[in-house]
Design a protein that fits this description.
The longest helix has 18 residues. The chain has 2 domains: 121 residues, Double Stranded RNA Binding Domain, CATH 3.30.160; 45 residues, no CATH class. Helix 2 runs parallel beside helix 3 and helix 6 runs parallel beside helix 8. The protein is α+β, with helices and mostly antiparallel strands. Strands 3, 4, 5 and 6 form a 4-stranded antiparallel β-sheet that branches. Strands 1-2 form a two-stranded antiparallel sheet. Strand 5 and strand 6 form a beta hairpin. The chain contains 8 helices and 6 strands.
Length: 216
């Protein structure tokens, strides 16, 4: 086990057989995620952060969210997750029950574990985890590389293919952060982005980042 970079160990774990699908989104069981983490790092702990009144959720008097931290090898990652209904829409405060709070805590725990590497590829929209050497499996690269050869064989120019669709704001934000050395989590946290955030929300986050850090 590579204790000097535990993230690599967790990020290489294949959890595909434990993924659940709901409303077009992928989920990993909190019990499975915690079990797999503890198998590899038995000293790992989690914290459910309470508000000033001792409640296990936080609120702005309109909606509410939970805050869960997971610590591995002395490093804590915290996940804040809004309390949502089955359509992944924030539930008004007056309609929230302890059932939704508990369910959201479990989801936040799973996502906090993912920040340490276990199942993170699910939230990145990938089908497979990275290999233990940190390289992704290049399944689609081979087919793309063959395209120019096929065009040459038929005496067709290689630029006759359909133009690529415009990149989503989410992708553009990731590229912007990489270009200027910005931690994406900072923007995600500041703009309260989620896995199911809309295109317009990601676009607003990109605009926020450019206004704060400059560049293009």
């Amino acid at each position: 086990m590579n204790e000097s970079n535990y993230f690599v160990t967790l990020n290489s774990v294949n959890v595909n057989d434990k993924i659940e699908k709901k409303n077009g989104l992928s989920y990993l069981s909190w019990a499975y995620a915690w079990a797999e983490l503890k198998k590899r790092f038995p000293e790992a702990t989690y914290t459910i952060y309470e508000n000033a009144d001792g409640w296990n959720y936080h609120t702005d008097l309109k909606t509410a969210w939970v805050k869960v931290g997971v610590t591995v090898n002395g490093i804590e990652h915290i996940e804040e997750l809004p309390i949502m209904d089955f359509k992944n829409k924030a539930i008004p405060l007056e309609h929230i029950t302890s059932f939704e709070v508990n369910k959201t805590i479990q989801r936040a725990l799973t996502k906090a574990v993912a920040r340490h590497g276990l199942g993170l590829y699910i939230y990145a929209g990938e089908d497979l985890p990275e290999e233990s050497d940190g390289k992704s499996t290049p399944k689609k690269a081979a087919s793309k590389a063959a395209t120019p050869k096929a065009a040459a064989a038929t005496n067709q120019p290689s630029d006759t293919s359909e133009p690529e669709p415009p990149k989503s704001s989410r992708v553009l934000l990731r590229e912007y952060c990489k270009k200027y050395g910005i931690e994406p989590a900072e923007i995600v946290h500041a703009c309260k982005l989620r896995q199911d955030s809309t295109e317009s929300e990601w676009a607003a986050a990109l605009l926020y980042a450019k206004r704060k850090y400059g560049g293009s």
